[in-house]
């Protein structure tokens, strides 16, 4: 059990990568707090962990709200007594690949993806530090490493997460490790509309040497490694899990 004795708080745990990560961490022995703006979806993830023999609770939480982030950590401590692991998976994409998104769309994407990652991390920092071996894993993207046919708001937010990860890794060492995962296109509800477009999907797949899009469970496996004690000497890393996309 690679996460035995760990207490993991996963934001965006109601669906997609966040849900897959919460399930995997729970299966590996972590006590899991499933946080999401969609409280019913978070509760379903927590129930699934319980059915598999794990221990989890669900919280409704909006990472763009500093008070909500603080309460999220407080409720975690009240239930489990400590916090060792934070996974910042909450995120949104732009409604469309608009080369000039309107200000409100830019702000929405940056607020959730980048500011939300920072706010949740800052709220969790004292508890993670107190644990003596805390870790944070952020969700960035291939578009945080390279350019592509996506919204500039999304790319900017994910690029910000990559460098924020490096900065926090330097400032918060040695007690808290901070890494991020940079997925390619993953088969989640967030990308479903794009993947249903044959023209888009055919063009996109040509950029993937492995010839397919990724699965949420494959990102969860990378997050598990970074969150576990197996990665005790790993911090400040931006790990692509992208089927070879960024190798080209």
Summarize this structure briefly.
The protein has 248 residues and is of the alpha/beta class. It contains 8 helices and 7 strands.
The profile of the biggest β sheet is: 7 strands, parallel
**CATH fold-type name:** Rossmann fold
Q: What class would the helix/strand composition place it in?
A: alpha/beta
Q: For this structure, what is the CATH homologous superfamily?
A: NAD(P)-binding Rossmann-like Domain
Number of discrete helical segments? 8
Produce the secondary structure layout:
Elements: E1 7-11, H1 16-27, E2 31-36, H2 39-51, E3 55-60, H3 66-80, E4 85-88, H4 103-131, E5 134-139, H5 152-172, E6 176-183, H6 192-195, H7 198-205, H8 216-227, E7 238-241
Parallel strand pairs: 1-2, 1-4, 2-3, 4-5, 5-6, 6-7
Helix pairs in contact: 1-2, 1-8, 3-4, 4-5
How would you characterize this protein structure?
It is a single chain. By secondary structure, the protein is α/β, with parallel strands linked by helices. The chain has a single domain (7-240), classed as Rossmann fold (3-Layer(aba) Sandwich). The protein is 46% helix and 16% strand. It is built from 8 helices and 7 strands; from the N terminus they run βαβαβαβαβαβαααβ. The chain has helices at residues 16-27, 39-51, 66-80, 103-131, 152-172, 192-195, 198-205, 216-227; strands spanning 7-11, 31-36, 55-60, 85-88, 134-139, 176-183, 238-241. Strands 3-2-1-4-5-6-7 form a 7-stranded parallel sheet, with helices on both faces. Helix 1 runs parallel beside helix 2, helix 1 packs across helix 8 (216-227) and helix 4 (103-131) runs parallel beside helix 5. The chain starts with 6 loop residues before the first strand and ends in a 7-residue tail after the last strand.
